[in-house]
Amino acid sequence: MFDGVQAAEHDLLVFLDGDLAGLRAGIISDMIGPLVKDEADFVKARFGRSGGRVTELTAKPMLKVFFPELAHFAQPLGGVIAARKKLLSNIRFEAGYGVDIGLMLDSHRIGARLAEVDIGSLEHDSQSLLDLTFMANEVARVIYSRARAMGRLNVEQIVAMYETQRQASAELDYVLTRRRQRHRVLLLDMDGTVTPSRFVVEMARFSGREADLMQLLDDPASDAVTRSEKIAALFRFVHQQDFERVALKMALRPGVIEFVNQMRRAGFMVGLLSDSYFVAAEIVRRRLFADFALAHTLQFDSEVCSGQVRLNSAFLARSGEPGAAVCKSRVLTRIREDISEPRVTECWAIGDNLNDMEMLRSADRAFAIEPKSLAIAAIPGITIIESFNDLLQHVPARP
């Protein structure tokens, strides 16, 4: 890239990755558009897919903490770049995976105007886990070095960055980057389905807040969003380790681990969904050997709960979308909308209560374990089971 800048004979330069597929006519014209119009000095491409694992778990969380003014860039690590030769001639080119983010940050540091252009859908060659490890290390090193140069590097920010990384792994965009060619998905409700008890109840009992929690759970006038916010506030000042300790001790239903393993062997991507908190769902997910967990994110400051919760966007209604404001069925809808090949062709769901009902209705195959409501048992197409051992006979053959 550096040698190309030196050899270039014109002022407007465009870089394209060498491993791109799906290039369309007009990309170069689109990329230099903001330069020609004198609206920007440095342009990054935004293309029609979520970022990869290093983008979602390293670059974006670090930018949110150290360079929040740049956190809106969709693909900060992408190599599709347009800039003026004069600008690039005065910027350091990193020798490695950190080159793209380094160019963006250095352009920003010297006052260049940055812009982002949507260039449609692109596909890259996949990289090995070893390459991704090197990339993450290089990207982190570059961002740290630029943050230090701007006086933005301190211990509190590093702690905040790790918290932001934890939250990023709770998002569906990151989950979809890990589908790895699988076109079958199994969604498991956590509270009452995988675990006989509910996490918030166990957590309230552990922290001496059970009576207060019961009042909130029994309030018929409270909508799902307000109730979630009030319950989160109940756990203010509780240490993160206490949430993890309770999640580790929660009982799992007999047979669930064997069932998850059998479904994964049958080619399913297995996800755990919870109306409670990712800090707990992620631990239960690991205990099950499931592929991912999606839940709402409690906010922690220095590992202490702030009492605030961020509802997972995968559960929320889009503008004009019918139904409840918060619903697990939308996770299934968003997964089906994923345009990555191969497309998802089969979705299973397992739940136990009314808050799982729409998810069960939407699934290709649905099961209810010891349903808490007769309304669930009355839904056509839902198979009622007593245990996960009953489900083993339903595991399909690998396609």
Which features would summarize this protein structure in a list?
18% strand, Spore Coat Polysaccharide Biosynthesis Protein SpsA, Chain A, 2 domains, alpha/beta, 399 residues, Rossmann fold
Describe what this molecule looks like in 3D.
- The chain has two domains: 2-154, Spore Coat Polysaccharide Biosynthesis Protein SpsA, Chain A (Alpha-Beta Complex), CATH 3.90.550.10; 184-394, HAD superfamily/HAD-like (Rossmann fold), CATH 3.40.50.1000.
- Strand 8 (268-277), helix 14 and strand 9 form a beta-alpha-beta unit.
- Helix 3 packs parallel to helix 6 (129-149), helix 3 packs antiparallel against helix 7 (155-168) and helix 12 (240-249) packs parallel to helix 14 (278-288).
- The protein starts with a helix and ends in a 14-residue tail after the last strand.
- It has 399 residues and is an alpha/beta fold.
- The chain has helices at residues 2-7, 27-36, 53-66, 85-88, 99-109, 129-149, 155-168, 172-176, 199-206, 210-217, 224-234, 240-249, 256-265, 278-288, 329-337, 357-362, 374-377; strands at 12-15, 20-21, 42-46, 81-84, 114-118, 123-124, 184-189, 268-277, 292-301, 304-310, 346-351, 365-369, 382-385.
